[in-house]
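Changelog note: in this version the structure field was regenerated for every chain. One regenerated record is shown below for reference.
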Amino acid sequence: SVDCSFSRGVCDWKQDADDDFDWNPADRDRGDGYYMAVPGFVGHKNDLGRLKLLLTDLKPKSSYCLVFSYRLAGDKVGKLRVFLANKKSAPVWEENKGKDEKWRTGKIEIFQGAETTNSVTFESERGKGKTGEIGVDNVILISGLCPED
């Protein structure tokens, strides 16, 4: 597996230059490193912020599982979507409500066919709320299919 987490990961992360705002590092409660977040007061409703994970060495015709922690904390904080580079139009994963402030786990299967996925984009869309945040942490790429819960 490849550790793409932000504090000690080995992956190449890029902020999108054509979006409305950047994701920012935020300190973890436990004090061991940081995660990436979009605070609720940044930007205006429907503004977008994109954080892109560049994937360079994925083998063709194989399967991978992208596992990540996320949270949507705060009332009407917005949406978190994940896009794969070779499927530009529709998100492969989307969440728009946090039931509470807890971190949850997201999983996405990446199949490398004739076209290879060379990036994964985490997109935050601002909601109406002015408090809370959208956060992403512990991004790991595992070879093979996603494990069942």
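Spot check on this record: The mean pLDDT is 89. Residues 2-143 form a domain with the Jelly Rolls fold (CATH 2.60.120.200).
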